[in-house]
Write a structure and sequence with these properties.
single chain, Rossmann fold, alpha+beta, about 700 residues, five-stranded parallel sheet, Methionyl-trna Synthetase, domain 2, Isoleucyl-tRNA Synthetase, Domain 1
Length: about 700
C-alpha cells in the first residue's frame, strides 16, 4: 500500500542562467512539474513548488568573457528573462529564486562546513592544467584542442562537441588555454571530494530494492552507475565565480556547481518559509519529488541523496520522474546552434496561446523515449483537437444554451452528455431543466462518470500524457453526443428533449473545466468565467449536477482559435534561416591541394569573355549553352550551372573561362572551354566575373 504523506515538496530542475528556456526544458521538466503541482493543490494537499536559477559554473564565466561583461551581469540578464517567461506560461512556482542569493550562499556554505567538520569529505591533490599567462587553473571547458577520436579542432576538455565523446583535458591533442591561447602546464592543486564509493551499499538498496517503481530510464541509469562502481567526486574547484569554499587556506576555490546547485532547492525553501522550512526537508511525512531531465538523473538520484545522507538530517526523494529528450523538427535541440523554440519568443509570437504550447508538449511528452516537436504537428493538434474537439463542443453547448434558454441552465431531469452541450444556443444562456433520459443519455453519462478515477490514477503515476488524453476524451464524448442528438433539429419537434440534451452538455462542459485545470489553466479559467463559476472542487469531477437548473451563464466566446498556415510557415522559415546561418558559421574551407610548379600554372590560359547568348540545352536539365565573345572568333561553352542561373541572367555578363582546355562534346555540342565558378559552403555556385568591364579576350593573371 502506498505511503500517505502530510505534505508534498515538489522541485523542478534549476535552469542554468546562461541562456533562455526552450521547449525541450518545458516538455522534460517544467510542464510536468506544474501539472503535478496544480493537481495536488486541486486535491487540497499541502504542497509547495520550488525552483530557481542555477547561476554558478564555468559556462557562465565563458559566456561573460566572450561578451566582455561580468558573470553577474550574465546571470542577472537570464534569471530575469527565465523568471518572466515562466510567469508568462503560467508556471505556478511558490518561489522562483536564484543561487546567487545571500540565503543560498549561507545555506550552501553551512552545508559544506557541516560535512567538512564531521570528516565526511576526503582531500586529494591532483595535477591540473594551469595557465601561466592568466595565472589561473583551468577548468575543463577552458581547455581546447584536437579531439583524439574524430580529430576535430576546438574540442573542450570535457567533451568534443562534434562527435559527442566525453573527454578529459589530458586526452586533448595540442591543448591550449581558452583564456590566453597559451599552452597550459600541469600544476598540483588540492580539492575536497565526496566519497560516493562509501555510500554505494545503501544507495544500491535504496534505489534498486526500495524504489523499483521509478521510471525505467531513472532506474536503469542508476543501476548502470552502481554496477560500474561509484568513485569519489570533487566538491570544489579552482574558479573565481561561485561560492567560496568556507575553509581556511582555500582561497581561489569555490563549491563545484553540481554540489552547489541542488542545495538551491533547500535555500529557496528557506527563503520562502524561513520559520518552517525544516519541516519540509526533514520531516519523513513530507514527500519529496524531483522533476528533472534525463541528463540530471545521476545527480538527483545518487549524488544529491548521498549529500543529504552524509549531512544526516534530511529526507530523501520519494520519486524522481525524469523525461527523455525532445527533438525539434527531427534534429537534437541545441542552444549553441540556436536550434530551439525559445519560450520567450513563443510567448511574443503566440500571445494568449500559452495553453496550446502546454497541450502540445504534454501530448508529445518524451516520458518513455525521445520525442519530436514539429510546427505542423503543433498546428494540427491545435486545429484538430483543441479547436475542433474541445473548443467546438464547448462552443456548441454554450451557444445553444444562449440561443434557446437565454443563457440559463434548464431544469434538471435525467441527463445525457449531449444535453449539456446545447444550453447556450437554445436556452438564452440559462441552464435548462433536464427531462427524462434516453438510453443513449445514460450510456453517455456512464462514459464520463469514471473520468476522475482514471485521471487521478494516471497523474499519481506521473503519466501526464495519458492523463491529458483522458481529459480530452470527455470532449470527444461530448462532441459525439451533441452531433448524434442534433438539438438544432429536435428543437422544432421536441423542445423538452432539447432541454435534457443541453443540460447534460453543460454538465460535461463544467467537468471539462475541472479535468483540464492542471493541464490548461488559462483555458480552464476562461471556461469557468463563461460558465459564471469562480471555481470547481476537484472532488466533484465526474458529477452530473455541477451546474444547477436556472444558473445563468456568461456570454460565450471561442475557447481556442485556429492557427493559419502562414503563421506556421513563418516559424518553419525561422528554423530554416537558423540552419542556414549555422552552416555558414561552421563553414571551413577544404584543405589546399598539393603544390604545383609555377610552370604548370602558366600552361592555363584564363580569359575574360562576354556572354552573347545563353540557352538551355534540350533534354539536359543541368546544362546551359553559352556563346562567348572571346576577342577572337567567339566560342561555344557548355556549363552545368542551370540549377543556379536562368539563361537571361547571364547574357551581357563578363565571365572568366579557361580558353585552352581541350574541346569535348556534351549532348552533341562541342564545348570549347570551361566557365569558372566558385562553390559556396551550401553547394551553390557563383560564376566568377570581373568588377569592371574589360575587352573580351583579356587574360587573367
Amino acid at each position: 500500500m502506498a505511503k500517505e504523506f502530510k505534505r508534498y515538496l515538489v522541485t523542478s530542475a534549476l535552469p542554468y542562467a546562461n541562456g533562455p528556456v526552450h521547449i525541450g526544458h518545458l516538455a522534460g521538466v517544467y510542464i510536468p512539474s506544474d501539472i503535478y503541482t496544480r493537481y495536488l493543490r486541486l486535491k487540497g494537499y499541502d504542497v509547495i513548488s520550488v525552483c530557481g536559477s542555477d547561476e554558478h559554473g564555468v559556462p557562465i564565466t565563458i559566456k561573460a568573457r566572450k561578451e566582455g561583461v561580468t558573470p553577474q551581469q550574465i546571470v542577472d540578464r537570464y534569471h530575469n528573462l527565465i523568471k518572466k517567461s515562466f510567469e508568462g506560461l503560467g508556471m505556478s512556482f511558490d518561489i522562483y529564486s536564484r543561487t546567487s542569493s545571500a540565503t543560498h550562499a549561507a545555506t550552501a556554505s553551512e552545508f559544506f562546513r557541516k560535512l567538512y567538520d564531521e570528516g565526511k569529505f576526503i582531500e586529494k591533490t591532483s595535477m591540473q592544467y594551469y595557465d601561466e599567462e592568466a595565472h589561473t587553473f583551468l577548468a575543463d571547458r577552458y581547455i581546447t584542442g584536437e579531439c583524439p577520436h574524430c580529430h576535430a579542432e576546438g574540442a573542450y576538455g570535457d567533451q568534443c562537441e562534434k562527435c559527442g565523446t566525453s573527454l578529459s583535458p589530458t586526452d586533448l591533442i595540442n591543448p591550449k588555454s581558452a583564456i590566453s591561447g597559451s599552452k597550459p602546464v600541469m600544476r598540483e592543486t588540492k580539492h575536497w571530494y565526496l566519497p560516493l564509493d562509501k555510500h554505494e551499499a545503501w544507495l544500491r538498496q535504496w534505489i534498486l530494492e526500495d524504489h523499483k517503481e521509478w521510471r525505467n530510464n531513472v532506474y536503469g541509469q542508476c543501476k548502470s552507475w552502481l554496477d560500474m562502481g561509484l568513485q569519489p567526486r570533487a566538491v570544489s574547484r579552482d574558479l573565481d565565480w561561485g561560492i567560496p569554499v568556507p575553509v581556511e587556506g582555500a582561497e581561489g576555490k569555490v563549491l563545484y556547481v553540481w554540489f552547489d546547485a541542488p542545495i538551491g532547492y533547500i535555500s529557496n525553501t528557506k527563503e520562502l518559509l524561513p520559520d518552517s522550512w525544516e519541516t519540509w526537508w526533514k520531516d519523513p511525512e513530507t514527500r519529496l519529488v524531483h522533476f528533472i531531465g534525463k541528463d540530471n538523473i545521476v545527480f538527483h538520484c545518487i549524488v544529491f541523496p548521498a549529500m543529504l545522507k552524509a549531512e544526516g538530517s534530511y529526507i530523501l526523494p520519494d520519486n524522481v520522474p525524469s523525461n527523455e529528450f525532445l527533438n525539434l523538427e527531427g534534429d537534437k535541440i541545441s542552444t549553441s546552434r540556436n536550434w530551439a523554440v525559445w519560450l520567450h519568443e513563443y510567448l511574443r509570437d503566440f500571445p494568449g496561446k500559452q495553453d496550446v504550447l502546454r497541450y502540445v508538449l504534454t501530448a508529445n511528452a518524451p516520458e518513455t523515449k525521445d520525442n519530436d516537436f514539429t510546427w505542423k504537428d503543433f498546428q494540427a493538434r491545435n486545429n484538430n483537437e483543441l479547436v475542433a474537439v474541445y473548443g467546438n463542443f464547448v462552443n456548441r453547448a454554450l451557444v445553444l444554451t444562449d440561443k434557446y434558454y437565454g443563457g440559463v441552465v434548464p431544469e434538471q431531469g435525467e441527463l445525457t452528455d449531449y444535453d449539456r452541450q446545447l444550453t447556450q444556443k437554445y436556452y438564452d444562456g440559462v441552464v435548462p431543466a433536464c427531462g427524462e433520459l434516453t438510453e443513449y443519455d445514460r450510456q453517455t453519462l456512464d462514459e464520463f462518470k469514471d473520468v476522475k478515477a482514471k485521471v487521478e490514477e494516471l497523474l499519481d503515476a506521473f503519466k501526464f500524457r495519458d492523463a491529458q488524453k483522458e481529459a480530452m476524451n470527455l470532449a470527444r464524448i461530448g462532441n459525439k453526443y451533441i452531433a448524434d442528438s442534433e438539438p438544432w433539429k429536435v428543437v422544432k419537434t421536441d423542445p423538452e428533449r432539447v432541454k435534457t440534451v443541453i443540460y447534460i452538455s453543460l454538465q460535461l462542459t463544467a467537468n471539462l473545466a475541472i479535468a483540464f485545470e492542471p493541464f490548461l489553466p488559462f483555458s480552464s479559467e476562461k471556461l469557468r468565467k463563461m460558465l459564471n463559476m469562480e471555481s470547481f472542487e476537484w472532488n466533484r469531477l465526474g458529477r452530473t449536477d455541477l451546474l444547477q437548473a436556472g444558473h445563468r451563464l456568461a456570454k460565450p466566446e471561442l475557447l481556442f482559435e485556429k492557427i493559419e498556415d502562414d503563421v506556421i510557415e513563418a516559424q518553419v522559415q525561422k528554423l530554416l534561416d537558423t540552419k542556414k546561418a549555422n552552416e555558414e558559421a561552421n563553414y571551413k574551407a577544404k584543405p589546399v591541394r598539393e603544390n604545383i610548379a609555377f610552370e604548370d600554372f602558366q600552361k592555363l590560359d584564363i580569359r575574360v569573355g562576354t556572354v552573347l547568348e545563353c540557352t538551355k540545352v534540350p533534354k539536359a536539365d543541368k546544362l546551359l549553352c553559352f556563346k562567348i565573345a572571346d576577342g577572337l572568333e567567339n566560342r561555344t561553352i557548355v556549363s552545368g550551372i542551370s540549377k543556379f542561373y536562368k539563361p537571361e541572367e547571364l547574357v551581357g555578363k563578363q565571365v572568366c573561362f579557361i580558353a585552352n582546355l581541350a574541346p569535348r562534346k556534351l549532348k552533341g555540342i562541342e564545348s570549347q572551354g570551361m566557365i569558372l565558378s566558385a562553390l559556396n559552403y551550401d553547394e551553390s555556385l557563383s560564376v566568377i566575373t570581373v568588377d569592371r568591364e574589360v575587352k573580351p579576350g583579356s587574360e587573367v593573371c
